[in-house]
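Hi P.,

Sorry for the delay on this. The queue was packed all week, but I finally got your sequence through. Input first:
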Amino acid sequence: MERLLDRITINPNICHGKPSIRNMRYPVELVLDLLASGMTNEEIINDYPAIEMEDIRACLAYASKLTQVKSIHKIVA
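Then the structure:
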């Protein structure tokens, strides 16, 4: 999984520092939103030819890592 995660980059000069795919202007959240909307991997790749199948897997791996927290606390404003 670590090799997949190497495809996810955080660069303050690209997408305002949001996690993106291989320093391109494709934020991880875009791919996750497309998948959540029901698009298939093939449809995403056809619409965004610079994205590879491994990039989609990397976005899913990144999202999985984000959910692996010890605890979540509600912050009262």
